[in-house]
Amino acid sequence: MFRAAIAKRHCLVPADGFYEWKGPKGDKRTYLTQMKQSQPFALAFR
Description:
Blueprint: H1 3-8, E1 11-15, E2 18-22, E3 29-33, E4 41-45
Pfam families: SRAP (PF02586)
Protein name: SOS response-associated peptidase family protein
InterPro entries: SRAP, SRAP-like
C-alpha cells in the first residue's frame, strides 16, 4: 500500500505495533512492540 511513497519520498505509516526478531541465530523469537495502552503511532520511512 505504501511502497511507491516509501520508494520516492519520505513517508509516515500509521501503526499500533510492530514485530521484531530477537535472539541468537537459529533460535530467534518474535516480540510485539507497542506503545503503552496500545495507542497508535507513526513509523517514518525515507
